[in-house]
Amino acid sequence: MRQVTVVEHLLLSQKERPMASGRFTRLLNELILSAKIIDREVSKAGLLNVLGGTGEINVQGEAVQKLDDFANRVIIRRMERAGVLCAMVSEENADFIEIPHTFPSGDYILIFDPLDGSANIDANVSIGTIFGIYRRTSFDSSSVTVSDILQKGAMQVAAGYIIYGSSTMLVYTAGDGVHGFTLDPSVGEFLLSHPDIKIPPQGKIYSVNEGYAMYWDEPTKKIVEYFKSSANALRRPYSLRYIGSLVSDFHRNLIYGGIFMYPADSRDPHKPVGKLRLLCEASPMAMIVEQAGGMAIDGRRRILDIEPQELHQRVPLFIGSKHDVEFVQQTFAQYYS
Ligand code: AHM
Ligand code: MG
């Protein structure tokens, strides 16, 4: 059987959309090359002096891992020279990154988390790069402003992740279904392995950090009790699977069916919003799950409809199989109608 690379797959699907230019292909190509470079370092992490923290604290107040920092630099350096972007937002940078005037630019905006789940790096747990791609909508000034970037997730033209796991995979959508490609290290290419992924409408897995249960509100407690009881859609308890690495937890649930939850909690009573970031984590995953037939909400609202107010805004996230997320939405609606 002839094996199809990501770019071949993209070109084939673009044949049906003659409007598409080569610019998106270029963007994806550069991102894929960045992913291969990151994968190379991640896969030999134990051999190099790259594990552990840099000693710095990032904009989220968290310790920066050396590999986070490496991945962030690789993506910024490659993508700023791609000639197709006007700006980038990284989870690791407080402000958005404008493309220097010395480089050619375009109208795409790339939002990314360079190495999500990095607290797991030292234990050889699967980690990932998450990305969302937007288009600039205003052309009235030469400089990009933050309002060009603060678009709701429904405006994404593409989204995806690379999971550095037992094998390395790229999973992405450009609004035409979700497709998975596995890196064949012997040829150095991502090859189509999971065409048109659909998430089972009814899951058997729930994924949540239950250690924080004492900080949850009533509907969240009720929802998790439901998944653990025999009075649910399955008539028996769901299995709990929680890695603590969003890309890994999400990817497993996408394939097997299930729900991932990072609810709001009261650890910081002034900011009961959960941990995950709307722009660089929740929105890309939400586009993927919807394209795969699932759902993503913050409890009541569709994630893709949330208008962001700031670059690093956090949001509660309930994402996965349609029936499971619908149950969450109904439960919140009963409490807050
Ligand atoms: P990071 O972006 O700093 O790596 O944090 C995000 C990660 C997610 O991958 C994961 O779902 C979550 O943090 C786990 O958090 P917790 O340890 O609070 O359960
Ligand atoms: Mg992250």
Polypeptide structure, described:
The chain is of the alpha+beta class and 337 residues long. The chain folds into 2 domains: 189 residues, Fructose-1,6-Bisphosphatase, Chain A, domain 1 (2-Layer Sandwich), CATH 3.30.540.10; 132 residues, D-Maltodextrin-Binding Protein, domain 2 (3-Layer(aba) Sandwich). The strands form 3 sheets. It has an 8-stranded mixed β-sheet with strand order 4-3-5-6-7-8-9-10, with helices on both faces. A 5-stranded mixed β-sheet has the order 12-11-13-15-14, with helices on both faces. Helix 2 packs antiparallel against helix 3 and helix 5 runs antiparallel to helix 8. It is globular, with a radius of gyration of 19 Å. The model has no long low-confidence stretch (mean pLDDT 91). Bound molecules: 2,5-anhydro-1,6-di-O-phosphono-D-mannitol (AHM) and magnesium ion. 2,5-anhydro-1,6-di-O-phosphono-D-mannitol binds next to strand 5.
